Amino acid sequence: MFDETPEPNAERLRAADRGVEAERALGIENGAGFERNVGLEEFQRAWTELINAAIHARSRSGHGHRGADDLTLTQALLMEAVRGMENPSVGAVAQVVGVSSPSATRMIQQLERKGMMARRRSERDERSTVVAITEEGEKVLAHRRRSMEAKQRRVFEAIRPALRPVVLELLRDLRDAVDDT
């Protein structure tokens, strides 16, 4: 019978192959560059620079739609979650977004005051409150989504085509690493 257990070094070899591919994409010959031992301090500095660049990019860009400027990232995520659910309760939305029910309630109340969300008693269970996005909220989300897609397109186009697969893989590796912490 064939043993499908991967060799212990198989992942390390795949990672090395990806490093060689990245070196080729960058025009680096004979492994010079990826063999360099990057220290924690350098990683932390690069991480901080990336976060600062993202914050500055956000502060430089106006959303151009009434209400969109006042929408926090968490509020936008909450509204996007509601868009993907059918008559969600406040508790269900809180769970999907990863915030407490009281926090979700406060955010929904703020969004309700801005005219972007509405709450009502559930028709199935009068003890429960369901939420929905208003027409104004849909407009704000659509505008925010178009703006984000345009920003993503500009960043993508600024990356050399040969590096795009490497960047995509690095982004996924970072996502997995952040999710694991």
| CATH A-level architecture of the domain at 65-181 | Orthogonal Bundle
The CATH homologous superfamily of the domain at 65-181:
Winged helix-like DNA-binding domain superfamily/Winged helix DNA-binding domain
The count of strands amounts to 2
Indicate the radius of gyration in whole angstroms.
22 Å
3D shape: elongated
CATH C-level name of the domain at 65-181: Mainly Alpha
Domain HTH marR-type: 36-176
Protein name: DNA-binding transcriptional regulator, MarR family
GO biological process, one term: response to stress
InterPro entries: HTH_MarR-typ, MarR/SlyA-like, WH-like_DNA-bd_sf, WH_DNA-bd_sf
Description of the molecule:
The protein has 181 residues and is mainly alpha-helical. It has a domain at 65-181: Arc Repressor Mutant, subunit A, CATH 1.10.10. 61% of the residues lie in helices and 6% in strands. A two-stranded antiparallel sheet has the order 1-2. Helix 4 packs across helix 5. The longest helix is centred in the last third of the chain and has 24 residues, at 135-158. The radius of gyration is 22 Å and the shape is elongated.
Short overview:
With about 180 residues, the chain is mostly helical.
Task: Offer a few descriptive terms.
single chain; 181 residues; mainly alpha; Arc Repressor Mutant, subunit A; elongated; DNA-binding transcription factor activity; DNA-binding; HTH_MarR-typ; WH-like_DNA-bd_sf
